[in-house]
# Entry
Amino acid sequence: MTSGSGQTNFSDLFKTLQEKEKFQDLTWSGSFNDYLNLVKENPFVTRNSFQRMYDMIMSKGTSEYTDVKKHIVHYKFFNDEDNEGKDAVFGADI
# Structure
């Protein structure tokens, strides 16, 4: 991490350290027994990406209504209430 003049480039050094910390935050290593203990503490660790997406959508709740004798479930997640409906998905019910 030295420049052509032999000086240390602190910007590159800090960038490398931050990437290592980010990597360490996103990874985990341990024995199988450690993993089983982790699962015992928090069973949601075992959920796959599809299950996590489902949890995220269902966390906002649903509403139900009938349209021309058809029972419809509206998922409030797609209303985008956090951004005042700016990125809402219209027509997802039908």
